[in-house]
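Table S2 (continued). Query chain:
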Amino acid sequence: METKPPEEMLATGQPTIVYFSSVSENTHKFVQKTGVANVRIPLKTAEEPPIMHAPYVLCVPSYGRPGGAGSIPPQAVKFLNQPQNREHLVGVIGAGNTNFGDLYCIAAEKVATKCGVPLLFKFELMGTQEDVQKVQEGLEEFWIQNSLYPASA
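Corresponding output:
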């Protein structure tokens, strides 16, 4: 079961992860372990993707296909094809499998390059506790460094 952040959490500008997870649930399990506000992209491409109204980081797994073709899940492509979603994207986290060699986290690399945002973190499969801690601390630091928290009233 995914956790969708309350609207008031998004309104405060807290770090948010938007993610796609396949039926393996590896990416979902990792995102849940971070405790960061999150929104899940639907599993079925026929479902409408969420529309983001605040800065977020996209967490995307890579699919191991020859030469990296088709490495970005079509659900993530559909999500990013929404102009408002691309506008609010501030960074990318890659999920992958080191068995893919040079194609490890290739989807995140492609999204970061195409959208002109930084690739912040990479983790394998469900990630380690160290990966979780790096993301938790790193997102907080990233939000502060990039002035993504709204100004106090």
